[in-house]
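BUG: 3D viewer hangs when loading the predicted structure for this chain

Environment: internal workstation, default settings.
Expected: structure renders.
Actual: progress bar stalls at 90%.

Input used:
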Amino acid sequence: MARLTGREAIAAAERTGRVLGSYSDPTSEGRDGLTVAESREIASQDPGLVYLDVTGDWVVAGRTSEDRDVGQIVSLHGATATVAWLSGTRTDLDLSGDDVEIYCRREQAEARRAELDS
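Structure tokens produced before the viewer hung:
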């Protein structure tokens, strides 16, 4: 499973409305279902404790309708994901880009692309 951690995880969750998780540490148990605000509080002490699972999620990326595509995250390397695009290619994508949106389901990503292209 691929995970974004720290500030990248919080930024992605903020853009997509997703909830985050945290790892256990010596002072507290790990938690799931964290809000962005709760995650920021935890990250202020140790950014590495906060995470967002993204493998299998769908992305919409591209600034114009000509270069915009929908794809599925197949692996993650830091804040860079390898994405299998519906156009048939597989490339690396910086998930922190302001033209990248992450969704749990393909239908959501395709609907967002249609909205952006109209």
